[in-house]
Amino acid sequence: MAESPASQRALVIRKAGYLLFLLPPILMPAGWLLGRDTGLPDLMAWYPVFWIFGVIPLLDYAVGCDTANPDEATETPLMQQQLYYRVLTLLAVPIQVLLLAWAGWVFVHGDLGFWGRLGWLVSMGVVSGINAINIAHELIHRHGRLEPWAGGVLLSLVAYGGFKVEHVRGHHVHVSTPQDASSSRYGQSLYDFLPHAWKWNFLNAWRLEAERLQRRGLPALHWRNELIWWYGLSLAIAAVMTWIFGWLGLLFFAGQSFVAFTELEIINYVEHYGLHRRRQPDGRFERTTHQHSWNSSYLVTNLFLFQLQRHSDHHAHPARRYQVLRHFDDSPQLPGGYAAMVVLAMVPPLWRRVMDHRVEAYYRNELEQLGAAA
């Protein structure tokens, strides 16, 4: 079926709009300049946080949703191969390296007090969660060597190299089942979810890599264990930051990493809250479809997150690149973009008031399964 002119215009706008991925990194120097020019450096150190979790949700609601899909027969095959979309994601690597080095310098030598340094660290962590982890998430799903390795480098810049292994070989296999540490249960609070996710995603990554090596007749502590390389790179980055900036440089690297991978796990909490794959008579779980992740088609956040919010199609078809992910009306729909939902998740009573009745409505004929999954 041919796309409508409105849908075709939406795809053209979206192609240019992906340049919004530059917005989060730009917010860091913007905050620094505002702090210098206003004489309020401690306040403006929080400027990126204010923009991402304050302004972006308002823009999402003002601009609205984009539900246009590329034509599967004509547009999708061409868009999958266009170099433009790959270049945008690969640019994240040099941007993240330069931003981390510069932001570390500001953290140590800038005119910041305690609250300013805290704000600068949190702001950098939030930006790293978007520019490093979110884009790494896109890259580690690709074939070949360049893109997955670029994703590994980005993850090393936030000390979360295990995500490269656990996400692809663990999360995508067990999503929306009790075996997945990144799938939040109905009724589970964010603060109960996070410690479990931190611990088991790290341990599962090492277990999965050890099993892969064992199948090849190799020990777990072998140079072919890719986690040794990614975490080794993180240690090298931490050492360089310490050598150049002293103990404050190490604190900055560790702190922004913690904020970044915590932001990732909060988004995991949002993406899968209360959803489950039904257990079949043979004991296996049903196949993952576009109905096992929360979807959000708010345009602004989708542009600077490279369509991460079309998460339903991503889990159903992980090989699809971000530019051709689709909206499905019958996927469970979030009431806001990720920026708004992350804030909401941090206040459990409000989160449950907004989300629980949506989960219950989605599973209205099988509520007993929600109790079993909680």
Total separate domains: 1
Could you estimate the helical fraction of the residues in percent?
Answer: 55-70%
The helix/strand order is HHHHHHHHHHHHHHHHHH
Q: Structural class, from secondary structure content?
A: mainly alpha
Based on CA atoms alone, the radius of gyration comes out at 21 Å
Descriptive tags:
single chain, 374 residues, mainly alpha, 18 helices, 66% helix, globular
Description:
This protein has 18 helices and no strands. It has 374 residues and is mostly helical. It is globular.
Give me the secondary-structure topology.
Layout: H1 5-17, H2 23-38, H3 41-44, H4 47-63, H5 75-81, H6 83-90, H7 92-109, H8 114-139, H9 146-156, H10 162-174, H11 190-215, H12 226-245, H13 247-272, H14 299-304, H15 311-316, H16 338-345, H17 348-362, H18 367-373
What is shown here, in short?
By secondary structure, the protein is mainly α.
